[in-house]
Amino acid sequence: MRTYLSILPSICGMIFSAIMAATAGAAHAWEVLEGCRLLNAPINDGDSFLVEHQEQTFIVRLYFVDCPETLDTYGDRIRDQARYFSISETSVLAAGKRASAYTRKFLRGDFTVITQWADARGGQQSRYFALVRKEGQMLSTELVRNGLARIYGMPTYNSWPDGLAPHQYLGQLKQFERKAQRNAIGIWADAAGSPQLTGLQQLEVGLEGSVNSRSVTQATPTTITTQNGASKLILNTASAAELDTLPGIGPALAAAIIDARPIQAVDDLAAIPGITLAKIDQFRTQVLTDAPAPPPNTAAFYLADHHNYLNRTISVQVSSVAKSTLSAPESFRAVQLQTAYQDEPGGSIAAFIPEELYATFIQYYQTSGRSFTGLLVQHGSQIVLLHRRR
């Protein structure tokens, strides 16, 4: 009898999962609910919250994303979230509270819920998967952009009204996640040891084959140089001393800017007492909120998320090629590729070329803008591109 009781929860869990999947698959047509309001409830957190629409109340569970837990009820989920963000399990709950606070702030006033009434379960009260939009912004997007959620959970199976195809939206989310990782925003600021961030140390590999010595925190840019040579300060990563250099911004306002992060738009600084739009206009051309995402088809693009591309064939746009003294496997020679996309620099990466193709390869890639396809592999402490023999 004791054995039977011990396996009963497992059987019930399997039945519950099957019912949930079947119910979700039987969702209705999309409905767009305007004028929804957030209700205070103990269940509210970053990705689930109680909503009122007209006289109906129900719990929304966001599609596509998962915020850290706020209670220690689900140990397995906390451990999984800790692994994803490379933070301690005790830090997960604190991160969950940050995500909850952000969602609560985002949902002030009226917002729109987009749902097919797919059952999300999770308790006795009605709970449905949905997307949430306010003033043109999607809550799931903003959570990922601000480093407060992982891309995880139930996706939509078709486009929602005025929305993207699911694979396109997931691609967008991944780009925002890379930017949050690179700029150490939100939870990613505490994830210096994350394997998802180690590629940042490899964005500029020296011609001698040594990895650039800057640390992960140094890899997070506080300024960038634009194509016209102008230097711009990154508001979400700049230090107090750097912010203090802006016209009209002293130490007190620099500290206030740091407290107000993450900053979505430059004009949002006007919400800080002491900063007016007129003052912002004095330095508007000198700042950006975030560093641009790595351009596609470049070394920086793949290295920033290398764990998803290792041992896969990728293509980069080569702006120039140079010889390298990096030690290559037998019958291969090493080169250094500088990459760019639409004239936007994208970092460099070493490549191993078969000995018999080396001279031709060097000559061919003297012409800028040609594409190179190779296998992204780990070679010792470095990540390189391998030109495979046919």
Task: Please describe what this structure looks like.
By secondary structure, this protein is α+β, with helices and mostly antiparallel strands. It is built from 11 helices and 16 strands. It is globular.
Summarize the structure.
With 390 residues, this protein is of the alpha+beta class. The protein contains 11 helices and 16 strands.
Topology:
Blueprint (H helix, E strand, L loop, with lengths): L1 H24 L5 E8 L9 E6 L2 E7 L2 E2 L8 H11 L3 H18 L4 E9 L7 E8 L2 E2 H7 L4 E2 L14 H17 L33 H4 L3 E3 L5 E4 L5 H4 L7 H9 L17 H7 L3 E2 L10 H5 L9 E11 L8 E10 L2 E11 L3 H7 L5 E10 L2 E5 L4
Parallel strand pairs: 3-6, 10-11, 14-16
Antiparallel strand pairs: 1-2, 1-5, 2-3, 4-8, 5-6, 6-7, 9-10, 12-13, 12-15, 13-14, 15-16
What keywords describe this structure?
single chain; 390 residues; alpha+beta; 5-stranded mixed barrel; 5-stranded mixed β-barrel; 11 helices; 16 strands; 29% helix; 26% strand; disordered N terminus
| SSE ordering | HEEEEHHEEEHEHHEEHHHEHEEEHEE
Radius of gyration: 24 Å
Note the overall shape.
Answer: globular
Poorly predicted parts: 1-26, 194-219
Overall residue-averaged pLDDT value: 81
Main sheet characteristics: 5 strands, mixed, barrel
State the total count of DSSP E strands.
Answer: 16
Helix fraction bin: 25-40%
Task: Give the strand order, joined by hyphens, for the main sheet.
Answer: 1-2-3-6-5
Q: Distance between termini? A: 63 Å
| Percentage beta strand | 25-35%
**Quaternary structure classification:** single chain
